[in-house]
């Protein structure tokens, strides 16, 4: 059994567990039922997501990496005025200061 992720926020652990289980990887959450109570009693107590089978560990790590990527990365956009490629974190074009176009519905 391999621990591959841990967090004080058990919601974070369970979101990742659902992702791995959805891909057919058997997982186990340690400290799950304890965490609510012990958080009150002693402060920090982490829930840990564990993979049951060693052969699934690499695939599980890969899935968690892509999971993070989805939530934090914003895709680049093309300026409608000057056609420059602008990083997704910019709200205006770095070249001509045009505003980022709204996403099409
Ligand atoms: Zn521009």
What are the main properties of this structure?
105 residues, alpha+beta, Alpha-Beta Plaits, two-stranded antiparallel sheet, 38% helix, elongated, binds zinc ion
Total number of beta strands: 5
Bound molecules: zinc ion
CA(first)-CA(last) distance: 45 Å
Q: Output the CATH homologous superfamily of the largest domain.
A: UreE, C-terminal domain
Number of domains: 2
Q: Count helical runs.
A: 3
Q: What string, H for helix and E for strand, traces the elements in order?
A: EHEHEHEE
Task: Write down the overall geometry.
Answer: elongated
Q: What is the CATH architecture assignment of the largest domain?
A: 2-Layer Sandwich
Percent in strands: 15-25%
Query: Mean pLDDT, rounded to whole units?
Result: 82
The CATH class of the largest domain turns out to be Alpha Beta
Reconstruct the topology from this structure:
Layout: E1 2-7, H1 10-22, E2 27-30, H2 32-42, E3 47-51, H3 57-72, E4 77-78, E5 85-86
Antiparallel strand pairs: 1-3, 2-3, 4-5
The chain binds zinc ion.
Zinc ion binds at residues 79, 81-82, 84, 93, 95-96, 98.
């Amino acid at each position: 059994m391999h621990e591959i992720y841990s967090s004080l926020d058990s919601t974070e652990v369970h979101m990742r567990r659902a992702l791995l289980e959805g891909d057919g990887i058997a997982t186990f959450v340690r400290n799950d039922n304890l965490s609510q109570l012990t958080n009150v009693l002693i402060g920090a107590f982490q829930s840990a997501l564990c993979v049951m089978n060693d052969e699934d560990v690499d695939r599980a790590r890969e899935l968690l990496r892509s999971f993070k990527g989805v939530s934090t990365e914003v895709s680049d956009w093309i300026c409608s005025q000057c056609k420059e490629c602008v990083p997704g974190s910019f709200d205006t074009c770095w070249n001509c200061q045009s505003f980022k176009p709204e996403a099409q519905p």
